[in-house]
Amino acid sequence: MRGSGKLAAGVLAGVLLASGTSVAAGDPVRAAVGDLVGEGGFPGAVVQVRTGEAVSRFGAGYANQATREPAGPHHRFRIASNTKAFVATVVLQLAGEGALSLDDPVEHRLPGVVRGPGYEPEKITLRMLLNHTSGVHDPLDKHFFDPYLVEGNRAHIITPSEVIRRSLIDRPSFAPGTGVKYSNTGYLLLGKVIEKVTRNDVREEIQRRILDPLGLGRTYFPLWSPFLRGPHLHGYDMRGEDMTVFSPSYDWTAGAMVSTVDDLATFHRALLAGRLLPPEQQAELKRLVPNEDGGAYGAGIETLDVKCGDGVKTFWGNTGAGPGFFSVSMSNADGSKQIVLALNVYDLAADVHGGQRVPKPPMPAVMAALC
Predict the structure, then answer these.
(1) Residue 293 lies in a domain
(2) Tell me: the pLDDT tens digits for 324-346?
(3) What is the model's pTM?
(4) Would you indicate the residue range of the signal peptide (predicted)?
(5) CA–CA distance, 211 with 196 (Å, rounded to integer)
(6) Is residue 247 part of a domain?
(7) Can you give the residue range of the structural domain that contains 283?
(8) Cα pseudo-dihedral 115, 120, 125, 131, rounded to 10
(9) How many domains does one find in the chain?
(10) Region of 80 on the Ramachandran plot (φ > 0 left; ψ -120 to 50 alpha; else beta)
């Protein structure tokens, strides 16, 4: 399974060490976003940028190429792997409440679920699932998305249980805790742990614990419907085909949520500032495992080390990519600067089979906001 947001190792990493990014004088973020839209290849973009308590938000280009509806910050989009931070927050809250321990083996919480050649579920802990050190990979079958991309059935449903089953057909990427590799399937397992522990729908737990307290009224978690609610961006592949209608069933707790730039910015600011977790669990959130992509994974969040004009800086947050949508939600280390940027091209077929996934890397806009 691909397309849920592992961007640091490709679209972003290609320019992580760039320096001297050229943007126009005045508003460098707006200029950098303008370079991405239109001739830059993305039909549209929506952005929220914060410096201290000063917030600006804007859209560029089109939310819908067919109708020429202008893109605006009120438009929803599929946030893909930004979902993982919401899921990790619930797991960490449950740990703080004593309902589970991050040292619990997955076999203890989900007996009999992780079964496959070479897998050792009694050695895979919940912490390993959170920080991508479990060795559980995604389905390796390149035909996984054929029902959507080849047969054209965008409403096709693949349940999380089926994704997990197909992931475990092949041997693990490595023995538990001995490597680092991004795993969407690991977050599907965490979703099942949440439901097992709480005896409640994971979507209701996210609603009660995060969305309602923070007032995130434009964020929701679809289960299988391929349609987006309310005003939203349309998402496209590299050929310009509209990919907006696409069932998120396979992505579930790895990447199915829908939001806006304002809601996503509010969530990440609260999370990284420690407003959603007790101190011990906040430390777990930011307990980093270096990866090979110029950054590190925490519990549901990631960091990117970026060469700015005055030296290397660390950005905190999430990235997200799925059929038609590509987003970045990042803050600088002290939280004084933040950007949430959503763009409406991501080519899932290219992700699966090789090829160009987005027209242009968005890192110059992120650097303009955070450097």
Answers:
(1) yes
(2) 999 999 999 999 999 999 999 99
(3) 0.94
(4) 1-24
(5) 21
(6) yes
(7) 13-370
(8) -90
(9) 1
(10) left
